[in-house]
Amino acid sequence: MTEDGKQINEGDGTGKEPNTPAEKGGEPTELDKLKADNDKFEKELVRGRQLKAESQKLEAEKMLGGTAGGKVEPTEPAKLTDQEYSDKFMKGEADPLGDDGIGL
Hints:
Number of strands: 0
């Protein structure tokens, strides 16, 4: 206290009176709580936007990479035996110049 009876804030050395009860060491006001909640919300909002962007990027990579529907193995054409091929050739169903399953 000073000689004229006024109390000064000796804690921070500025000589200013604390503005809020939270600065005085008391309970935080409703405004202080709302400001703190707003800060938390803004941080979570930024994090949510980052996660959304990452998710969209991964989804695009999956779709462009051909893995959106799961792993797809290419199937080889059925190999025909010599007898099956000759039967198809005699019926006109086999194309001797095309890829019809006969491997040389």
